[in-house]
Amino acid sequence: MLNKACLNLFDIRKMKNHVEIIEFSYTVIFTDARTIYVSELSRNITVKDLHEDFQSNGTIRQITIICKIFDDTEDRNNGYAYIEFDEESEVKRTLRLNRGVIDEHIVKVEKKWSDACTIFVGNLPDSITEDALRNHFQSYGVHPYRDIHSVTIKNGKKGKYAFMHLAGRDFVERALQANESHLDGKRIR
């Protein structure tokens, strides 16, 4: 079973007829060795589409597409998903799809480390580099290269953000202490 715990912190603005969620601060997802991470997906991709594309590699237990909710009738795919298989050997077969094409998008398919954790870091300065972001978390007890497996920095409509893959839950706890800290003049979330 997927070991999953999500921590979603939202900036919420109440509108006339609905609640708009502006952006989330952190999402923490604990995975095991039977789970892959797929990114760079089409915004129109569905669970059914992913099941059709990945089922030939093994028995799929669960597919989770990460979405941002805009109101109670609409949500938008963020372009990445977690797929859990029955067996770890099925994950190894699936990794060959890395840099393959799904729905006209070249996607990344990566193995998730056992007990690895991913956090979303938002409101990053435009000048941010991977090294600067890694080093920022060092003052919170997270070693920039031993404890952070990978960093993916992206440009969004509201500025730069990143996903950091950490070595374990205790490093997530330490990294979360950086919430609202300042990096190059911006308060990161």
TrEMBL record:
Molecular-function annotations in GO: poly(A) binding
InterPro entries: Nucleotide-bd_a/b_plait_sf, RBD_domain_sf, RRM_dom
Record key words, sorted: RNA-binding
Every RRM domain range: 34-114, 117-189
Pfam families: RRM_1
SMART domains xref list: RRM
Gene3D superfamilies named in the record: 3.30.70.330
Protein's name in the database: 7081_t:CDS:1
Species this chain originates from: Dentiscutata erythropus
